[in-house]
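Q: For a teaching session next week I want to show students how multiple molecules come together into a single three-dimensional assembly. I've collected the sequence lines for a complex. Could you give me the predicted structure tokens for the whole thing so I can convert them for display?
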Amino acid sequence: MTATLEVINPVEPFLRTERMPHIWCPGCGIGTTVNCFTRALLESKADLDKVAIVSGIGCTGRVAGYLRLDSFHTTHGRAIPFATGLKLANPELQVVVYSGDGDLSAIGGNHLIHAARRNMDLKVICVNNLIYAMTGGQTAPTTPATAITSTAPYGAFDPTFNLPSLVEAAGACYVARWTTFHVRQLARSMAEVFNKRGFCFIEVLSPCPTLYQRRNKLGDGLDTMKYYKEKSKVKNGAPTSEVGLSKDGEIIVGKFVDRDRPDYLELMKGRLSEQLGERYAEVGNLLCS
Amino acid sequence: MAAGARFAAGYPITPSTEVVERFAARIPTVGGAFIQMEDELAASITILGAVWGGAKAFTVTSGPGFSLMMEHIGFAVMTETPCVFVNVQRGGPSTGLPTLPAQSDMMQARWGSHGDYEIIALSPNSPQECFDLTIRAFNLSEEFRTPVMFMMDECVGHMTEKVVIPPADQIEIYPRRRTTKAGLAYKPYEPDADLIPAMAHAGEGHRFHMTGLTHDERGYPGMNVPTQDKLIRRLQQKITRQAARLTMVDEANVEDADVVVVSYGITSRVAQRAIDMARQSGVKVGRCRLICCWPFPDAHIAELAKTAKAFVVPEINLGQMAREVERAAGGRARTIPVTHAGGSVHRPEDIYNAIMEAAR
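A: Of course. Below is the structure for the complete assembly, covering every listed component.
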């Protein structure tokens, strides 16, 4: 008698398995974040037909293509404005922006702060590997001083963005940071933002063993997990001005901001109905004929 | 709005801003949205997001803004996103002449984004045509699933004239080509017989993927020569195969003309004065006004070149469409450009003189 043992990974239904293997390197943290994201989908019991995922360009930009959701792999830096159009045309959608630090904060930096300012109802997952990985490990606005990159062979020296502080100042109503070591906390944060209205931002520190860790002699993916474990300190509610990252310093993680303010659609509806009264035709689903 | 547009995103730029100002005032009473974005890069992709969310959408810009939108014109071509880009042309390059007319973005409309692609571009010459052709532009974008360039110029953009707006039920609207396939059976880039695929919107249960990367019929990236060849040729051929049907010209007296004046936009109205003057001088001169500039009406110009001796091509640039006329004429008739660097319309006399020279 032969027994067939079939084990299905609980995240498998969320993935486009026909697209595997994925392009990410061994030890890369992006897959870990995707795992957390699918667990968050599972936990939040979101209607998957109403969840859309939008990515920009880069290693993390490839996430959209691997998730079995309505998925949009857009242009470099412009995932947020695409997601803005998607959300406004169909407010029923839960729109997730999943992209990297270079895509979101450099080429897309203007859109990041303006979407936060508007409090657009978008859930932004920013995988931060401290460099441009897809193109070979160049300096990003997040590269800490003295770190070696392919375009900073003598070590980076320009000051970095502190992303939680940036988006909080711009108006985000939920801001958290975790590392790929903090899988449970990350999945919980991801599930939490599904039930939060407005602009939500989760930064996930993630290793790029091929280009960042190797060049900076920080070991492989596993070494980075140990590093994250050692250097991280959970400080929920920490003032975002104090959570800036450095090359070797402490990594402050946690949920920093969780506040409520009316989102763009509420503000639009409020103002227009106040001014136009019965003449106002509310933006519903703009589905065309 | 008559064309079914319910979404616009824009960034202010002279001399185009009036379009979104009016839209912003009207659309909340119709059920739609306008959003002012932080720049043209954002505006030009926000509309694409809205299209995939189910709306018919457009943006409006001019010169420098059009330059910034190029990336997303290419993205719209690649992802087959129906939408309309309105460009109220002003003098360039760079900041140029913000308040004054030009027609110098015609080649940018055709070739501005990187890579090989076909485009559709319409050029109105009156407020009435701005109304009628905008509807046409939306319809063509939906039929071909491609961005359509709506190439105005500052003069036409700011012109005041009588416009007859037909009753809504007499306006023909091309509906979005929606897929009839349910769920995962839908392949977003599986073309119909006319090479154009049916579309789905986010939130309908298809869980489809789209990307600006070279992709197969499932919408999945395929980084190889056969996938690239198949996709890029289909994107081109879905338009070129129907190029003859896309030819839109407004003509008079071309049958026995020795000289045909080929023009478009505001210049066609100045050219008409020159044509009238030349006909009074006894020259057999005809008018061929391009309404659809891209795809260029090659076959039509070649046909005219069989009987005409010469084409006179006035345009507010240093000879962009004139080169197309010359190419299409294939040496059978001379092409005489009447150039203008921008900032005003031509003097009719300059066009008249070119006609007289051509007739000699």
